Amino acid sequence: MSDVHVAAVCGSLRDASRTHLALERVLEAAERAGATTELLDLREFDLPIFDADRDREEAGDAAELATRLREADAIVLGSPMYHGSYSSPLKTALDYCGFDEFRGKTVGLLAVSGGAFPVTALEHVRSVCRSLNAWVIPHEAAIPNSRAAFEDGEFADPTLEERVATLGRRAVQYATIEPEPDSFESDQNVGAEGK
């Protein structure tokens, strides 16, 4: 799997972002699984609010972000939950992308919440990915009560940390999956082997 490249997009702009911390763990697990990785921190990109009348090449760093996502074999999208959905910085980033960046690509999802499980945030970003014909990993990582989930930048709960790490391993494992295999005997359709 050394030729697999995983890019994670952090949809939080906070300096002490727990989403950022969690994505670092995802990428550490992906590296241990043999991938190269990069964390795309949206604080480092100039992304004006999406305007369909503006070409992507004229919209700050939108073209660069799209290129880096297009070059990845798998993408992990991470977001805090705001008002029951995912963050506006992540929405803006996704609006500058399209089928060229996501069609047939493996995408993992992670959401962080200060309160209850961020299920709706995961559902909303999953819908966006499906509309772009991405293959979304069934395993997703949800971090509720995030203030208690971390202590001094480390996970307080090893079970939760393992769930997050599993997302990184799955991103590598399924980076080359065929979203629509020709047959059940496809080499990449490991779940159908022997059926």
From TrEMBL:
Domain NADPH-dependent FMN reductase-like: 5-146
Cofactor(s) this protein requires: [4Fe-4S] cluster
Highest taxon listed in the record's lineage: Archaea
InterPro entries assigned to the protein according to its UniProt record, in alphabetical order: Flavoprotein-like_sf, FMN_Rdtase-like_dom, NAD(P)H-dep_reductase
GO molecular-function terms, A-Z: FMN binding; oxidoreductase activity
A GO cellular component entry from the record: cytosol
Ranges annotated as spanning the membrane: none
One Pfam family cited in the UniProt record for this chain: FMN_red
Family: Belongs to the SsuE family. Isf subfamily.
Protein name (Swiss-Prot/TrEMBL): NAD(P)H-dependent oxidoreductase
Organism listed in the record: Haloterrigena alkaliphila
